[in-house]
Specification:
It is a single chain. With 305 residues, the protein is an all-alpha fold. The protein has a single domain (6-304), classed as Ammonium transporter fold (Orthogonal Bundle), CATH 1.10.3430. It has 13 helices and no strands. Helix 2 packs parallel to helix 4 and helix 3 packs parallel to helix 5 (105-116).
């Protein structure tokens, strides 16, 4: 039924523990959100690819999984359906399907519903509970929102994921383990991960050192979707640059934009904006930074001749 793509399958393997942990935290809601995303996303791609005489790619499974994990636990399921429909249709299929899209589909879908239904999305968070038991939607301010209000979240809760947030933001430990697996299996680029995470961290500490009043504390790097996006979204092989130096610059663009949006805008989270801005610049970065290397190599050959 699907085009076989082992690299996409490995991404799904790395996401499985994070999803299972979200079920522990929030109960049945992550299961329902993922189910809706898979049904609508796969059906949308199937209808388009059938007209082209092709099968859906296994990449659509990754798109659906990443999109679902970016959702608040209490988001209405119809919003989940609208977002994944936009993700697969507008951010992928209108460009010609897998391998031709400019923007990361999961991020595009998430940002679409984030801007279209901001109040509903912000009201979709709840505190963690054992399989959803004891979860409280009333006291569900996310760690980033608390930090903006001058409150702090214990580092241990951020590392272990025992706090409110989107489904996939959970345990930083599981996200780091996923990153190690993706790097060890050569599924993802270390340049993309490192440049995004390091640039965001450096700018955060620089803002703190400069005494910027709006600067978030250092633990903000463990909050929200910062690490999740650095590991799974920035490393998308289709929408990211292909040249090594371009990848480093691309990660820096995303890391810097994320921190700036988080710090100075009305939006508490900036990762989606950072990734889409990076997507827009990806081909240009490949052209500029890749061409310079090619010209240097050609000059070296000419001199040797």
């Amino acid at each position: 039924m699907f085009q076989k793509q082992p690299i996409m399958r490995r991404v799904l393997y790395s996401l499985a523990p994070i999803f299972l942990f979200s079920v522990y935290l929030f109960g049945w809601r992550p299961v329902a959100i993922l189910a809706v995303a898979l049904v609508v996303g796969i059906l949308t791609e199937y209808l388009f690819e059938r007209g082209r005489g092709k099968k859906p790619s296994e990449a659509v499974l990754v798109t659906c999984a990443l999109y679902a994990l970016s959702m608040p636990p209490l988001v209405p399921l119809w919003i989940v359906a609208v977002g994944i429909l936009f993700a697969v249709f507008m951010a992928k299929e209108v460009y010609g399907g897998f391998g031709r899209n400019v923007f990361n589909p999961a991020i595009a879908g998430r940002l679409f519903v984030y801007i279209s239904f901001p109040t509903t999305m912000q009201a979709g968070f709840l505190t963690a509970g054992a399989f959803g038991i004891g979860a409280d939607a009333v006291s569900a301010a996310t760690p980033l929102a608390l930090m903006r209000a001058g409150e702090r979240t214990p580092i241990a809760d951020l590392l272990l994921g025992l706090r409110s947030g989107s489904i996939g933001e959970g345990s930083m430990v599981l996200i780091v383990l996923a990153a190690i697996y993706l790097l060890a299996t050569k599924t993802a680029s270390w340049r993309l991960m490192l440049s995004a995470a390091a640039s965001g961290a450096i700018l955060t500490f620089a803002l703190l050192a400069a005494g910027i009043a709006k600067a978030l504390p250092a633990e903000s790097l463990l909050s929200g979707s910062f690490l999740f996006v650095a590991v799974f979204m920035v490393t998308d092989p289709v929408s990211a640059p292909k040249k090594p130096r371009a990848q480093l610059a691309y990660g820096i663009v995303i890391g810097v934009c994320t921190v700036l949006v988080r710090t100075f805008s009305l939006f508490p989270e900036g990762t989606s904006f950072g990734v889409l801005i990076g997507n827009t610049a990806a081909s240009l970065l490949d052209e500029i930074l890749g061409k310079k290397k090619a010209v240097t190599a050609a000059a070296g050959k000419g001199g040797a001749a």
